[in-house]
Specification:
There is one protein chain. The chain has about 400 residues and is mainly beta. The chain is about 10% helix and about 25% strand. The strands form 4 sheets. The chain has a 7-stranded antiparallel β-sheet, with no helix packed on it. The protein has a 6-stranded antiparallel barrel with strand order 14-15-16-19-18-17. The chain has a 3-stranded antiparallel β-sheet with strand order 2-3-4. A hairpin with an 8-residue loop joins strand 18 and strand 19.
Length: about 400
């Protein structure tokens, strides 16, 4: 077991290892709602199925082909057979060995979204809302995120030196029209140097195979605007970050980008952890993470180290510093005040491709999502039971962020 922190070794655009995510529903002015199910409905089928792990459902494996994800119907079907429930990552498996209709009819009317929904005045540097997101009324659970979920997610694309290809390597989070937060090790150090320079910061991404992205929701075609690739204008790394220190203290950086397009249901900044917002860090707290990192969901088709082509999500529990410190003593890791830990459940973790992605909590009083941490450090065997991930604690760096992101 080895500690990692760099771009593609440990964590980088969040997305979990294996199909893992605790589903929830979020309606207007309402907090997430948790449901439990074992018997489940399959779209367009009379006979009910049962919730099972994807690897235990041959029918799901037969249709889970990433080369078919450019099909709106196929992607929508995969999303709709995710089970709702506290057991994360399960799918609705038919009693037979195959689904009757593994694709939804794509000849459906297009859903028209209002230009402004759930507007909340932001005190954090923009007149538009932060930390809010719009949903269709019913949210399906599972590891696949909704098309309009976490609209502040950013994908970092690198210009590979060897192949000259532009590839995904880290994640980030939009905090205003001009700035994205990521991990410092995503933009400096040996791993970054070997990967190639940062080429673009991509916003409004969901399915890497489609542009614009579309899914079928409630018998209507729901489509986002086209992806937006912003050029990095300037990168500001925390001055105390040391590339040679394996503890990864102060692992945070700001990327100034070309101004983002107008905000919409598919593009919006997350709220920073201002003092007046709920502090999501503490015993019993749970966080959400999202991204396009390494996952078991497409291992059969794309290989062991495949990154997810679809935005995924996951719920992780807070781990107290004393417990986390004890776990990492064999690796001689010493946690600093600017770090927090989360996770430690089997097959549920941020992983390769997730560095720089946000750890988030939901403020029930204000009804907004708040940036808690940045994916920073973990072990190569991500998703190992009892070993949490380490995240940069954003609240500790709030003055620095506001000063350098023109938000003071």
């Amino acid at each position: 077991m080895f500690l990692v922190g760099p771009i593609a070794s440990t964590l980088s655009a969040i997305v979990i290892v294996i199909v893992a995510i605790a589903p929830f529903s979020l309606q207007e002015d309402a907090p997430p709602v948790w449901e439990v199910t074992t018997v489940c409905d399959i779209p367009n089928e009379v006979q009910k199925g049962t919730c099972r792990e994807p690897n235990d459902c041959p029918a799901y494996g037969a249709i889970n082909d990433p080369t078919e994800l450019s099909s709106v119907g196929r992607l929508s079907f995969l999303k709709q057979v995710q089970c709702n429930g506290t057991v994360s990552g399960q799918v609705c498996c038919p009693r037979k060995r195959r689904y009757e209709s593994p694709a939804l009819n794509e000849n459906v009317p297009r859903r028209v979204r209002p230009k402004a929904t759930n507007r909340i005045h932001s005190r954090f540097g923009d007149d538009d809302s932060c930390g809010s997101q719009s949903y269709v009324p019913k949210i399906r659970g599972g590891e696949i995120a909704n098309i309009d979920e976490f609209p502040w997610m950013a994908m970092l694309l690198y210009d590979m030196k060897d192949t000259k290809m532009v590839v995904h390597g880290c994640g980030g989070v939009l905090i205003n029209r001009n700035y994205v937060i990521t991990a410092a090790h995503c933009v400096t150090g040996s791993e970054y140097d070997s990967k190639g320079p940062l080429k673009y910061v991509r916003l409004r991404e969901y399915n890497v195979y489609d542009d614009p992205d579309c899914v079928i929701e409630q018998s209507a075609l729901d489509c986002s605007e086209e992806k937006f690739d912003a050029k990095p204008r300037n990168i500001t790394i925390h001055p105390e970050y040391d590339v040679s220190n394996h503890n990864k203290y102060h692992d945070i950086a700001l990327i100034e980008i070309d101004p983002s397009p107008p905000y919409s249901d598919f593009l919006r900044p997350i709220c920073l952890p201002e003092p007046e917002l709920e502090n999501g860090v503490g015993p019993g707290k749970k966080f959400s993470v999202s991204g396009w990192g390494r996952t078991d969901a497409f291992r059969k088709q794309l290989g062991n180290n495949a990154l997810s082509p679809i935005k995924l999500k996951l719920i992780l529990p807070y781990v107290e510093p004393e417990v986390c410190q004890k776990v990492f003593l064999p690796q001689h890791l010493r946690l600093g005040p600017g770090q927090i830990c989360a996770g430690g459940q089997k097959a549920k973790d941020t992983c390769g491709g997730d560095s720089g992605s946000p750890l988030m909590h939901y403020d029930f009083r204000k009804g907004v999502w708040v940036l808690t941490g940045i994916v920073s450090l973990g072990v190569r065997d991500c998703g190992t039971e009892g070993i949490p991930g380490v995240y940069t604690n954003v609240r500790e760096y709030l003055p620095w962020i506001k000063e350098h992101a023109r938000m003071a």
